[in-house]
Amino acid sequence: GQNIDQPTEMTATEGAIVQINCTYQTSGFNGLFWYQQHAGEAPTFLSYNVLDGLEEKGRFSSFLSRSKGYSYLLLKELQMKDSASYLCAPMDSNYQLIWGAGTKLIIKP
Amino acid sequence: IAGITQAPTSQILAAGRRMTLRCTQDMRHNAMYWYRQDLGLGLRLIHYSNTAGTTGKGEVPDGYSVSRANTDDFPLTLASAVPSQTSVYFCASSRLAGGQETQYFGPGTRLLVL
């Protein structure tokens, strides 16, 4: 079966760095997306990885290891507005996104 | 303003009633999707359409139907609502189906079935 595993909740301090891990098992693989979702709002795109390695985009970076079925999202210089849920979503062989339940990130001053 | 709109924003519905959730995008995207989001679960795909005139079933299609008569609109119909269909429904679109195409989401419809 297809399975996505990410922590339910994490807490971090404003200005710090946090890493949100995601492990996945899918039928085939066509890349992995990370989305941000603020409470009561729609998910918004953060990053896409299809090759192994680190993709950096401003304060956010995303890493992928296809052989390990593993990805992480790294958030630097945390701001209060980063308090949100972060959704890991690999794409399977049918080009459908398989969504994790999300990691709720709480930022404390 | 380009994007995806959904209507209604929220709805309380009696069990057994028929309901259509509307979704319209003005980005000329070919692919559109309907998801439901429930507490503690990931987004689950209900139905999708890779291009106007075609539709497909997702992970949880039972009790739902869709149509794609044109590029812009992708309505989702609950023929006879049941309480287990209480959820937040998101419509999304992407330029093309598959590959590294980013999906863009509408604001969602919050549905309560009593």
Write up this protein:
- The complex is a heterodimer of chains A (109) and B (114).
- Chain A has 109 residues and is mainly beta.
- Chain A has strands at residues 3-5, 9-13, 18-25, 32-37, 44-49, 53-57, 60-65, 70-75, 84-90, 103-108.
- Chain A is built from no helices and ten strands.
- Chain A is globular, with a radius of gyration of 13 Å.
- Chain A starts with a strand and ends with a strand.
- With 114 residues, chain B is an all-beta fold.
- In chain B, the strands form two sheets. In chain B, strands 2, 4, 5, 6, 9, 10 and 11 form a seven-stranded mixed sheet that branches.
- In chain B, a hairpin with a 6-residue loop joins strand 5 (44-49) and strand 6.
- The A-B interface holds A 4, 30-31, 33, 41-45, 48, 50, 87, 89, 91, 95-102 and B 35, 40-45, 48, 58, 90, 97-100, 102-108.
Question: What's the arrangement of secondary structure elements?
Answer:
The complex is a heterodimer of chains A (109) and B (114).
Chain A lengths: L2 E3 L3 E5 L4 E8 L6 E6 L6 E6 L3 E5 L2 E6 L4 E6 L8 E7 L12 E6 L1
Parallel strand pairs in A: 2-10
Antiparallel strand pairs in A: 1-3, 3-8, 4-5, 4-9, 6-7, 7-8, 9-10
Chain B lengths: L3 E4 L2 E4 L5 E7 L5 E7 L6 E6 L6 E2 L6 E3 L9 E3 L8 E8 L9 E2 L3 E5 L1
Parallel strand pairs in B: 2-11
Antiparallel strand pairs in B: 1-3, 3-8, 4-5, 4-9, 5-6, 7-8, 9-10, 9-11
